[in-house]
Design a protein that fits this description.
Layout lengths: L1 H14 L30 E4 L3 E6 L10 E6 L7 E6 L13 E9 L6 E10 L4 E10 L6 E7 L10 E8 H4 L3 E10 L12 H8 L5 E4 L6 H4 L22 E2 L5 E2 L5 H11 L2 E6 L16 H15 L6 H8 L8 E6 L7 H18 L4 E4 L14 E8 L1 H6 L13 E9 L21 H16 L4 E6 L3 E3 L10 E3 L4 E3 L1 H11 L4 E2 L11 E8 L4 E8 L5 E6 L8 E8 L17 E6 L3 E6 L3 E8 L2
Parallel strand pairs: 11-14, 14-15, 15-16, 16-17, 17-18, 18-19, 20-21
Antiparallel strand pairs: 1-4, 2-3, 3-10, 4-9, 5-8, 5-10, 6-7, 6-9, 12-13, 21-22, 23-24, 24-25, 25-30, 26-29, 27-28, 27-30
This protein binds 2-acetamido-2-deoxy-beta-D-glucopyranose (NAG) (7 copies).
Catalytic activity: Hydrolysis of terminal non-reducing alpha-L-arabinofuranoside residues in alpha-L-arabinosides
Family: Belongs to the glycosyl hydrolase 51 family.
Pathway: Glycan metabolism; L-arabinan degradation
Length: 618
């Protein structure tokens, strides 16, 4: 190429007047070059149909400045039959009869021509059988980007998830054409029909847990959002508005995040489920090890302020709030808590000035917000003194049981605590973050879930200072795990709620309004309980976790005037290593039964069980 360019130049300078071009180069970069550009990774999940040659190119006329690349598809000369591309989805595509799928993409022809034809947009089985299709008329004159949006309503369900989303042209008519495509999208029906919304089955599983808050921008590990470098951090303004304006980013866990699920999508999700948002802001530390110097924090503090204003600002007073209004939400979203960073014990030495500078700037502007610190609790000493701390615990099932008194010794002085991430993830205390070969769990087990439940009885007992708690991580695609175990696993076709999910659901759906002190469990024992009262229904609710194999016999003595003769027991129990997995999705689910209750009654807690007893008492 270089040689021919010189030849051309030499020839032209003799024979022609050559237009003089001066090219100046900016010393500052506008955007990083994605490592996937020009690599086969960018073509992951894409397939050629009938010899079309798809490639990823840096488009000379990009569809938007946020999306500089396009998928270039060449219909080879002499083609016949349908020629184009297929995409196998995110490890498969579930195709269900009667569901409406919304498909969209942008396209432009590389060169103007008199070609007239149509795109066939379809869902097909992996062997090429069409499940549903529709045609969109196109002409070769369309050399500027044009969006195609169609709905597909299959009348037959596919027998497996090995299906493709395909776009083809008739090869003989389109022979020689080059088409550029961008921003493909295929959505099944969404939860509450939100455009760009949540998959119904996953969202419903979460909704059924009746969560009261959601930690965002991602529920587990803001690590996802911290980025390995400062440039790769999650930035709220790159995740709102039209998808065409969302550049996406390389996330911490080694794959590209499209940010199709952006800040406003999370907030709408909170609204749909009646959840509060606990929102994190980036606090000047990238996981690769860089802490922004104190003198350089200004723009990042401003960006955090803008992020908060986008959520709660007055649309007449603040530009980010006006943006929210223009996107269809004039009213502020509810927000009470802002978390400054995530797991900042990774950079505790710089957190002292980062916490100080962020909170000193933000607290006066947002006096009603409570800011949460994320380094180790009370370490380092921070100023201003944090009103709340976020505590994370990943450990063994027995650690959780042994630490169910974790918060009992904390001073009651106005400081409150958020158990922002916890899970029993390994049975090997000398290798908590190891592999399944050394005890790491792939899915929660009945043993891990009962350990967590033991710990949660302690959270309930300490609910005067522990204001919220969330298992982590929440979701896992079984075909592509970066971390196990997870609360809810799924694949393209199904959802697999774990034993831990059922524990969370049992605790969440059986919350009380007030805690009733009772005989304390033995601190280093294996049997744990907590007692609450639900005022509206006059119910006493007792949660019990038995963390070992042998059953335990409990007797309750209740001081009330009258206690119903019967109550309900909801019990989750199974073998120590029993897990709900794709092959045994419903191995352990809660079962209800009626039990005898009264002013004094006995209950046998099965080995490895979590029980919720409820009955009326006055
Ligand atoms: C369809 O998907 C399968 C994987 O499920 C893949 O092997 C095949 O190449 C795809 N075909 C098309 C046309 O996309
Ligand atoms: C987001 O805002 C920051 C300034 O806070 C700016 O540097 C960045 O370019 C913006 N990103 C997008 C995608 O608009
Ligand atoms: C509460 O006690 C803890 C531990 O002693 C201390 O670090 C924290 O600053 C105290 N909070 C207040 C508001 O005094
Ligand atoms: C626990 O982890 C250690 C360190 O990896 C390993 O040597 C040991 O074999 C593990 N124990 C079990 C029971 O897997
Ligand atoms: C439990 O703790 C008590 C008090 O610390 C101690 O005396 C007892 O030995 C412990 N029991 C076991 C089984 O560890
Ligand atoms: C569960 O534990 C039992 C008894 O230790 C063992 O026989 C079985 O293979 C284990 N099952 C799984 C799925 O690990
Ligand atoms: C079990 O009982 C609880 C509490 O009464 C109830 O909410 C739940 O729907 C019941 N579950 C089943 C499977 O009947």
């Amino acid at each position: 190429m270089l040689i021919s360019a010189f030849e051309l130049w030499g020839f032209a300078s003799i024979a022609l007047v050559v237009q003089a071009v001066t090219v100046t180069v900016s010393p500052t970069a506008s955007h990083p070059v994605p490592t996937t550009l020009y690599t086969t990774a960018a073509l992951n999940a894409w397939h050629s149909i009938n010899g079309a040659a798809p490639s990823v190119v840096a488009d000379i006329l990009p569809v938007s400045s946020a999306l500089p690349n396009s998928l270039q598809v060449t219909i080879p000369a002499g083609s016949t039959g349908p020629v184009g591309v297929g995409n196998e989805g995110y490890f498969g595509i579930k195709v269900t009869a009667g569901s409406t799928y919304t498909a969209s993409f942008h396209y432009r022809f590389a060169k103007a021509s008199s070609f007239k034809g149509s795109f066939k947009v379809a869902l097909q089985t992996a062997t090429g059988r069409s499940l549903v299709s529709t045609s969109v008329t196109v002409t070769g004159e369309t050399t500027k980007w044009q969006e195609v949006k169609v709905t597909l309503r299959p009348t037959i369900s596919a027998s497996s998830i090995a299906n493709n989303f395909t776009v083809t042209l008739d090869g003989s008519a389109a022979s020689g054409q080059i088409v550029h495509f961008a921003l493909f999208s295929l959505f099944p029906p969404t939860f509450k029909n939100r455009p760009n919304g949540m998959r119904v089955d996953i969202a419903t599983t979460l909704a059924e847990m009746h969560p009261s808050f959601f930690r965002l921008p991602v529920s587990h590990c803001f690590l996802f959002s911290q980025g390995q470098t400062v440039d790769q951090r999650w930035q709220w303004n790159a995740t709102v508005g039209p998808l065409l304006n969302r550049p996406g980013r390389i996330g911490h866990w080694g794959y590209i995040n499209t940010d199709g699920l952006g800040l406003m999508d999370y907030l709408n999700w909170c609204e749909d489920l009646g959840m509060q948002a606990i929102m994190a802001i980036w606090s000047g530390f990238a996981l690769g090890g860089t802490s922004v110097a104190e003198a350089d924090l200004g723009p990042y503090i401003q960006q955090a302020m803008d992020q908060i204003n986008f959520v709660i600002g007055d649309s007449k007073m603040s530009v980010p709030a006006a943006l929210r209004a223009s996107l269809g939400h004039p009213d502020p979203y509810p927000l009470a808590y802002v978390e400054v960073g995530n797991e900042d014990f990774f950079a505790a030495s710089t957190y002292t000035y980062r916490w100080h500078d962020f909170v000193s700037a933000l607290q006066p502007k947002f006096p009603n917000l409570r800011f949460i610190a994320t380094s180790n609790t009370f370490n380092p000493i921070l100023s201003p003194n944090p009103q709340s701390w976020d505590q994370h615990n990943y450990n063994t099932p027995s650690w959780f049981a042994e630490n169910s008194f974790f918060y009992d010794g904390f001073e009651r002085n106005g400081t409150t605590y958020f158990e922002g991430e916890y899970a029993a993830i390994s049975t090997n205390s000398s290798d908590i973050f190891g592999t399944p070969a050394t005890g790491r769990l792939t899915f929660p087990t009945m043993q891990s879930a009962s350990g967590e439940a033991a710990y949660m009885t302690g959270l309930e007992r300490n609910a005067d200072i522990v204001f919220s708690a969330s298992y982590a991580p929440l979701l896992n695609h079984v075909a592509n795990s970066q971390w196990t175990p997870n609360l809810i696993s799924f694949d393209a076709g199904n959802v697999y709620p774990s034993t831990s999910y059922y524990v969370q659901k049992l605790f969440s759906l059986n919350r009380g309004d007030e805690y009733l002190p009772s005989t304390l469990p033995v601190q280093n024992g294996t049997l744990f309980w907590s007692v609450v009262r639900k005022i509206s229904t006059q119910q006493i609710i007792i949660k019990i976790s038995n963390t070992v194999e042998s059953a335990a016999d409990l007797t309750f003595e209740l001081p009330f005037r009258s206690v119903a003769k019967t109550g309900t027991a909801q019990v989750l129990t199974g073998a120590a290593n029993a897990s709900n997995t794709p092959t045994t999705p419903n191995l352990v689910v809660p079962k209800n039964s009626t039990i005898a209750t009264g002013k004094r009654f006995s209950y046998i807690a099965p080995g490895f069980s979590v029980s919720v007893l409820s009955f009326i008492a006055h």
